[in-house]
Amino acid sequence: MTEDTIETMSPDTGEQPGQPEGSVGTAYLAMIGFPVGAHRWYLRHATAGIIYVVTFALLALARFVFRERVETGFAPIWTVAVILVAVQLLLDAQAIPRWVRQRDRSVPLPAPLLLLLGALATIILLPLLLDGLGAVLSTLFGGNTRVGRQVGTVIITLVGVPAVLVGYIVLMEHTTWHFTEVWQRRVRPWLWLAPALLFLYTFLVYPTYGTIRRSLYDQAGTSFIGLDNYEWFFNSPETLTALRNNVLWLVVFTALTVIGGLIVATLFDRVRYESFAKTIVFVPMAISFVAASVVWRFMYVWNFPPSPQTGTINAIIVALGGEPIDFVRAPGLNNFALIVVAAWVWVGFCMVILSAGIKSIDRELMEAARVDGATEWQVFRRIMLPLLAPTLAVVTTTMLIFALKTFDIVYAMTSGNFDTNVIALEMWNQFSFNQYGRASAVAVVLLAAIIPVMAYNIRQFRRQEEIR
Amino acid sequence: MTTATDMAGSSRRTILSRWPLHLVIAIILILWIVPTIGTLVNSFRSETAIRFEGWWTAFNPPLEFTLENYRHVLTRQGMGDSFINSLILTIPATIIPIAVASFAAYAFAWMKFPFRNTLFVIVVGLLVVPLQMTFVPLQILFRDSGLAGSFLAVWLAHTGFGLPFALFLLRNYMGSLPGAVFESAAIDGASEMTAFFRLALPMSVPAIASLAIFQFLWVWNDLLVALIFLGPNIPNHPMTVKLASLVNSLGGEWHFLTAAAFIQMALPVLVFLFLQRYFASGLLAGAVKG
Amino acid sequence: MDLSKHGLRRFWRLLALISVLALLVAACGGNGGGTTTTAGGTTTSGATDTTEPGSSTTTGEGEEIGGVVTVIGTWGGAEEEAFLAMVAPFEERTGVDVQYTGTRDINTVLSAGVQSGILPDVAGLPGPGQMAEWARQGALIDLKTVLDYETYVAETSPAFVELGTVDDQLVGVFIKSAIKGLIWYNPNVWTGGDLDSWDEVVAAAEAHEGADAGWCIGLESGAASGWPGTDWIEDFVIRQSGPEVYDAWYQGQHPWTSPEIRQAFEAYGEAVANSFGGSQYALATAFGDAAQPMFTDPPGCLFHHQASFMAGEFFPNYPSSPQPGEDFDFFIMPTINPDFQGALTGAGDLFGMFHDTPQARALMQWLVTAEAQQIWVDRGGAISGNTMVTEYPDPVSQKSAEALATSEVFRFDASDLMPEAMNSAFWQAVLDYTQNPGQLDAILQRLDEVQADAYGG
């Protein structure tokens, strides 16, 4: 009983492309890494059955043979996955002869159940595939060394994760084929969104829910105290200073970075040494915030006047005959000094995104305008800016959010002393004081502060919708 | 008049006639690079010189440069392992969120479903969630699932944290692609899958490339997420943790951070240079018109 | 046709059955593998592959144990090297691999860890206040069951034993310590030797003969900026108003606006007014670099108030590379109120144990020994927590160790004993007061508010 026999037993029936054949199990093939377009060929009835049975048997065998080299954390996932696969194997085994005999395209389970099984299996299979194949690969590459093992895992992740996701979509598309056109359109977006929503729920929504709840409880988290933590927030001098400074950050930081990024991206777009120039402006992005604080120490540092100034800016001031300034501590000035550091870092970010936006603008449109006698300013104002509006909205929103969340530069340079405190830093402080209730309240205020920005974005999307 | 004609033909715009542009760019670049140059110079000087003299004095004779800072950082115990750990952490933590986000971004941009904009705005609103607040609940989750201390935990966490921005950027980029392309594809009988793989994805390459850079950077430079989720699994700690502990508990020995900054910066800058070509204009032209 | 169909069906059934069996076997095997590896790993929660179960384990010093112990502390740089040198003989003798990482965010790491249970085996604790909180939550292991308690008590100064004890459980031990309230001077500038009354010190500082100013003060210390000023104030409180006020104060039972605390702030304010570069210098200068003008020509200041670690970790790196005894020396900040003779403040680095593994037990047993602590002491800058360590590398360290051993009234750094919120407000208050001396009332008022709040939970 060879593969050939089975192939001849199930000749190509010439069904329409994309028709689901086989069961959930067959779609695993796509997950194991077959490139998109090729999956149809593999999804042919029994051949598929054999391939996936063998693959999983091998995988299971690998897991058994290399068990010492497999992350221990995966053990429960393995068990669940194995049971799932076993169930599907049984179902398929029962169905395969029927396909062979009748060329029956129906699947052995009702579609919703199939969907659920497929989704479950996919979620669980992701780490499992990484794990099992990682073990095999690492044996090939690094032997039993820790790094060798991990490198194997990384290689698998690089290939495996996109493959699993593509496989997931392929599987879902095949399953929904059973549905009517209308239902397909209703269900499909949610299936495409599901992996992202799952991640967002687990890593952000669920903790946020906990945070909101926690903000209504006392320090120990045992008794409900209503809005007391919020009352504290709006009455404590530290948080009010922080709030004031955040407003300053929102306005100045956002303006500096967005306008700066736009200027830089537009100017650099016109010269041949663009990539060199962009690299220079991008470099600060690559510097960690701890390092950035060291870099700017050499710019801002103040020395007691008789001794020579070691800070670049103060040295220049003194050379020009001025009085050196202690930038980080000078009241009123220090907030701007910190914002400048942050802007120095983030202009590179705005530049990269805006530049990508500029590149997507049709060159011929601008050239045509120039031929018609438009000045450079007119080209910028009338053509580039309107076409860049969606990208500008993204950049501005992101910068507003980062201004709200600003933490690391302040933390590294002043720790919020000398009236430079910001909300996110105050939250961090409360967190380290074991005041989880208050820290949570601060976090919730941060969340609430985003609402106006989001309202603006909704309008933006609506407009975009109308345009197209 | 003359300026207008000058502007008209791009071929006639020579470097000489555009000297103000070059001057402005030169000034911007100098302003931008000076802080980095200062630190770079200092990274080749002794601790005493760094602390008590300005970096520009290094060029006064006698020239006294030293590789000591770099030697100290690079020969630190476990430095090589931590570099590999950083790579192991960063590469999947860059790939996974981009892969997950591109499907969802496509759905947000080109599929119609109820509450689409509301849902999307909530997703973007999640950008503001302070990561510090998620540490304890997530750590409990990882503990219960047996993932605590593993690389996988950090990959998953970074995927979750990076998704809102990834979705935001990609959805907006995909949303701004010309609708006509997708309509004609639909008329030709292409499925959503085909439209996604053959049209949306290739056309979004510049956005994906920018996203890749930023996600790479954030994970590469991240200290806290790795520290919290890897916790006591010390052999897995990345370079950031290793470099941060160059400074002693009293805040001394920070001069080594000058060298550390450049060691840590090297790879992201290389990645940026490598991805630059995906930003080049004209890459899209064919696709958009097709 | 019929036959082959039946045969085919049978083949598929057989194949399915075999596969399912194979998978189940693999799953069980997998679980088996999982449990054996986690046997050693459960305690370290995620320290995976390298943690082989220590099957041949027997406790006791010097015996082969093998396995791994994970340690997280605050030490970085040269401190980390010193710690690794300290555990090197232990690793060699026991075969235990000590995995260490140092981070300034220790508080966050351990706080989150205590709540979730993901903790290192052994950790450097941020301070006695935080330690007590975790001990009450049951996160720390009672070291009375780990160490030879009687030997530990005999070899450790009673103050340190007491500081590490919470609810009759020994939860923290000191690896190294430092004494505070030392008045450093340059013998080539200040030739008057040791002074034994505070009035004399003030008079000498006022005159600041041969120097620009009386004091050198530097408060900058990154996130912890301000702490050198809190040391000043603590030293005044204990010498002006005695240990009882001091204890009530850090316990939150003595108001900041009281005359005792106020006069300590004012005395510190006078020192700032008579310091090199004034408040601007004090605020902008890193505490480690602050005393640098003491060694310049002409000298900038006469005295520098700072802890014993200056000798080992900061002075040697100054441009003029001062030598202990020749270029720098100290005397202990003298008595102010004669009722409180011989008072001394100090601080130390606490270690606690979160997981009771044989490796962690062995490590803790090793770390408290004089032999282990001598290793760090030899590298300079540290005073041992173990009184059996008497050999110090230079006369200045020797002198500070003796001062610790002979102190009549010893108190731990008050700000470290305060709740984190109070401590942080104290640091900030010092900075505010240094910048705006006129606002002392408002600053103390604010500290009272924080006090009312911070001790509540």
Question: Overview of this structure, please?
Answer:
The complex is a heterotrimer of chains A (468), B (290) and C (457). With 468 residues, chain A is mainly α. Chain A has helices at 3-9, 24-32, 39-42, 45-65, 75-102, 111-141, 146-176, 181-214, 228-233, 237-268, 274-282, 289-300, 312-319, 333-359, 363-371, 376-405, 408-413, 423-432, 436-449, 451-467. In chain A, α6 runs antiparallel to α7 (146-176), α8 (181-214) packs across α19 (436-449) and α16 runs antiparallel to α20. Chain A is globular and about 80 Å long. In chain B, α5 packs antiparallel against α11 (205-221) and α8 runs antiparallel to α11. The radius of gyration of chain B is 24 Å and the shape is globular. Helix content of chain B is 68%, strand content 0%. The two termini of chain B are 38 Å apart. With 290 residues, chain B is mainly alpha-helical. Chain C is an alpha/beta fold and 457 residues long. The longest helix of chain C has 43 residues, at 2-44. Chain C is globular and about 65 Å long. Mean pLDDT of chain C is 83; it is low at 1-5 and 21-61. The interface between A and B is large, with 122 and 129 residues.
